[in-house]
Design a protein that fits this description.
Blueprint lengths: L11 H53 L1 H9 L2 H4 L4 H14 L1
């Protein structure tokens, strides 16, 4: 007994619909991935880098412009009128910081 096997006819339209559907699904997943990555960078990495930049800028500003501030604050009234060395140092540091 021999069964006759019929070949299935290849349906190009159905095949390409499946391929397009899979590619659309991949594209949607990629878009979601890039959106999440952008949000992580924007809300987490961004503020951290800004704070590091501000600290670095203040450090550079403090080291470059400190000689003028030190000269000015060494002669300031608060530093000269301090009764103890500790109070003079605090007054000097406050003056340099606010210069």
């Amino acid at each position: 007994m021999m069964c006759s096997m019929k070949k299935k006819k290849f349906d190009k339209e159905a095949y390409f619909k499946k391929v397009v559907a899979k590619e659309n699904q991949k594209t949607g997943t990629a878009i979601v991935f890039w959106i999440i990555l952008f949000l992580v960078i924007w809300f987490i990495v961004g503020p951290i880098s800004l704070s590091v930049q501000k600290k670095g800028f203040n450090f550079i500003k403090g080291t470059i412009g400190s000689s003028e501030a030190e000269d000015y604050c060494a002669d300031s009234w608060k530093v000269k009128s301090a009764k103890t060395d500790f109070a003079a140092k605090k007054a000097f540091d406050s003056c340099v910081k606010n210069y």
